[in-house]
Specification:
Radius of gyration: 21 Å
CATH class of the largest domain: Alpha Beta
Shape: globular
Bound molecules: guanosine-5'-triphosphate, magnesium ion
Helix content: 40-55%
Order of helices and strands: EHEEEHEHEHEHEHHHHHHHEH
Strand content: 15-25%
CATH superfamily of the largest domain: P-loop containing nucleotide triphosphate hydrolases
Largest sheet: 7 strands, mixed
Mean pLDDT: 92
CATH topology of the largest domain: Rossmann fold
Low-confidence stretches: none
Number of strands: 9
Number of helices: 13
């Protein structure tokens, strides 16, 4: 079975390090169509039927940078079988913002939790099973730089691609209801393969992402009414409401699963703990 895997993640999360470790010399570098952003594709060293694409580094699937647009257009139009989301575990909160968006594209996601060597060195603890349950994605702990566990990423990606299970993170119910309304009431959205993605993007008024949608004037009016009601409820625009909801979700997930070790403490935390220990002694 031939499979295409896309590596997606923040800048500096270790995508290219992982890509190089997996493909070795089986890679070709080109440019994305029409732009000068570098395109890297390769084949898995141990099984040449597995194609791997190294996407440009991004913090979000919004339309504001060339890298974001290139990455999301690739994911929507080329439809790789599975996304391996490379997450820098030593900067986990910032990295997970993108993670919450990836499955909305309708492609199964596996997290490669990278830089675990740094996490261990810092004495930080991540409850990976719980993190996986809360996010709804399988997670493989790796160190791309040290070649740790990288073949397990491919094994997991293949099994996820075979089941083709896409887990969608719901927003809080008071936000989710608006997205569901768009998804069910706008038939050009309901009929499309990526209904979740288009519903969120219409709500965010992301015109680039929705330009290809054949949406009637009446449907446009329906969407405008939904956004207007949400704006009144939240005193914020659609994009702000979604961003805020993602951040709130991630902070609660991180608070539940990550314990910072000593080197992750601030200076005043350290002084406090020294003072407390001396006092206890
Ligand atoms: N300690 C440690 N460093 C790593 C690991 N993986 C990658 N790095 C380092 O992190 C830095 C960034 O790695 P890259 O692979 O270039 O990151 P990238 O995601 O391709 O970055 P962009 O292409 O800019 O988006 C490099 O200095 C790597 O050596 C790891 O597992 N542990
Ligand atoms: Mg890179």
């Amino acid at each position: 079975m031939s499979i295409t895997i896309a590596l997606a993640g923040n800048p500096n999360s270790g995508k290219s390090t992982l890509f190089n470790a997996l493909t070795g010399s089986n890679q070709y570098v080109g440019n994305w169509p029409g732009v000068t952003v570098e395109k890297k594709e390769g084949k898995y060293k141990k099984d040449k039927s597995i194609k791997i694409t190294d996407l440009p580094g991004i913090y979000s699937l919004s339309p504001y940078t060339l890298e974001e647009v290139v990455s999301r257009e690739y994911l929507i139009n080329e439809k790789p079988d599975v996304i391996v989301n490379v997450v820098d575990a030593s900067n986990i909160e910032r990295n997970l913002y993108l993670s919450t968006q990836l499955s909305e594209i309708g492609i199964p996601v596996v997290i490669a939790l990278n830089m675990m060597d740094i996490v261990h060195k810092n004495g930080d603890k991540i409850d990976v099973d719980k993190l996986s349950r809360l996010l709804g994605y399988p997670i493989v702990e790796i160190s791309a730089l040290r070649n740790k566990n990288i073949d397990k990423v491919i094994e997991t990606a293949i099994s996820v691609a075979k089941t083709n299970h896409v887990h969608i993170n719901s927003f809080d119910e008071d936000v989710e209801k608006y997205i569901k309304e768009i998804e069910s009431q706008v038939s050009s959205v309901s009929m499309s393969e990526n209904s979740r993605w288009y519903a969120v993007k219409l709500f965010e008024e992301d015109e680039k992402a929705t330009a290809n949608l054949q949406i009637s004037d009446a449907e446009r009016k329906t969407v405008e009414d939904i956004i207007k009601r949400a704006q009144e409820e939240f005193d914020d625009d659609g994009e702000g409401i979604i961003t805020d909801n993602r951040y709130t979700f991630i902070s609660s997930v991180v608070a539940d699963t990550v314990k910072k070790g000593r080197s992750g403490m601030t200076t005043s935390d350290k002084i406090d703990s020294i003072v407390t220990n001396r006092f206890l002694a």
